[in-house]
Amino acid sequence: MQYKFPIAIMKHLQALCIDASKSGLFDQVVIPDVIQYRFGTLKPQFTFFKDGKTYNKDRVHTSALDQFAKSMFSFKQCVDQIMIDDTDRKIRKHQFENIYQYFQNFDLDIAYVDQTIDALQVIHTAFQKRNRELTQEKQSLNPYSSDEKQKRLRKEVDAKFTELYRETKAAAEHICDCPSLLATAAVRMTYVDSKAKNSNKNYSFCWVVASEGMLQNVQLHYEDKDKVYIQQANEIDQHTFAWLDHKYTTVMKQEAYTLQWSEGKDMSIPDKYLKRQDAKLDDLIDYKISLVSSEKKAWNPREVAEKIVGQTYTVFNDRGWLGVTEGLSIARKTGDSILNCYMDKSITIKHIIKTTKASITCLADFRA
Predict the structure, then answer these.
(1) What angle do CA 254, 259, 263 make, to 5 degrees?
(2) Does pLDDT of 197 surpass 60?
(3) Most buried of 4, 54, 63, 264 (most Cβ within 10 A)?
(4) What is the DSSP string of 105-130?
(5) If you average pLDDT over residues 292-307, what whole number do you get?
(6) H or E stretch covering 133
(7) Burial of residue 272, with CB atoms counted within 10 A of its CB: 0-12 exposed, 13-18 middle, 19 or more buried
(8) Tens digits of per-residue pLDDT, 28-83?
(9) Is the Cβ–Cβ distance between 275 and 107 less than 8 Å?
(10) Is the dihedral angle over the CA atoms 40, 41, 45, 47 positive or is it negative?
(11) Bridge partners of 291?
(12) What are the residue boundaries of the structural domains of the chain, listed by start?
């Protein structure tokens, strides 16, 4: 009986909250202080599973939901295995590659790619800053309210995003008129260089300024390869798989991707931007690199460093990374795109500078 009155008040406030999406009176639905102070500090036991603290609302009884939560907690180890361990195992089985390698054109001259990246830096910085401001403004709005003011504010911030994207794209295309080159530079900035520095929380820049060029680069990667299409299936065989109660199968086709560009859009790649076949490649001596694990499993950098120092390897394509040996790749850093030219060339690990829990910093010789 001691909870009867506060429960009645809370039911009334709950009804107001439900109607608030139409009335817009969110700020006026407030829990009275007398209820907040009297009952607000006593929480039901099941909230333990939110913040890890033990509670008991009336310090005597345990609710049905408390009992249910306690019972579910006993299955935590089993749930972790199913939802985390088994899922990770399935992902590793598929061996997903770094798909953004296909958004780049590696036939382009590295010098032009680096020049384009340098020219885009100011635009990229301004875009990131303005995009962050607009995101914060949008998050401050109620996305569900049918209040006219909230609707108007949501439309206004969406219009600001549209204008930002339009202006950024126009500015980037003014710097570089080759969509494939622009895409390669923008993807390097957005995914490769920023991930190496762990400095980027937003990956929309390349999609805003060079989406056509990214699709063109994908087309270039796959123009001479078989294509795999997923189609619904009526009969079951060894190639059929089920998803959400529907059956699908994979079909191989030898055909080119058909892409349609905006009318008047010049998608050509001028010869001057392509690598020169007769260009001389020099050796890189005492070049500082960082090596990281390219596999999702524990490793000991110090032990690995002792094994690789003085050894010579061949640089290979490790699912889009520059692989040195199995499970070990070169971490990208700004300005080292020249290393792409040393694919299939020899690398000698000369001297270990330092090791951390996740990487090995060393000096290496690349032989052309």
Answers:
(1) 155
(2) no
(3) 63
(4) -TTB-HHHHHHHHHHHHHHHHHHHHH
(5) 84
(6) helix 110-139
(7) exposed
(8) 677 777 777 666 666 666 666 555 556 555 555 566 777 777 777 777 777 777 76
(9) yes
(10) positive
(11) 330, 360
(12) 4-73, 99-227, 284-367
- HSE-CB at 24 with a 13 A cutoff on CA atoms is 7
Q: What confidence score (pLDDT) does residue 7 get?
A: 78
Count of other CB atoms within 10 angstroms of residue 160: 15
Query: In the structure encoding, which two tokens stand for residue 160, read together?
Result: 């600001």
Q: Which of 350, 349, 342 is nearest to 368 (CA)?
A: 342
Here the tokens at position 241 are 């798989």
To which residue do tokens 């972790």 refer? Answer: 80
Euclidean distance between CA atoms 150 and 143, whole angstroms: 8
DSSP state of 278: T
Quick one: pLDDT at residue 336?
63
Q: What φ, ψ does residue 311 adopt, rounded to 5°?
A: -90, 155
Structure tokens at 270: 């001028």
Single pTM value for the model: 0.60
- Residue keyed to tokens 């180890």: 77
Q: Which two tokens stand for residue 350?
A: 């000369």
If you ran DSSP here, which 8-state letter would residue 331 be given?
Answer: P
Residue 91 is predicted with a pLDDT of 60
Average pLDDT of span 169-192: 92
Collapsing DSSP to helix, strand or coil, 298 comes out as coil
Between strands 328-330 and 346-355, the pairing is unpaired
pLDDT tens for each residue of 109-160: 888 888 999 999 999 999 999 999 999 999 888 887 778 888 899 999 999 9
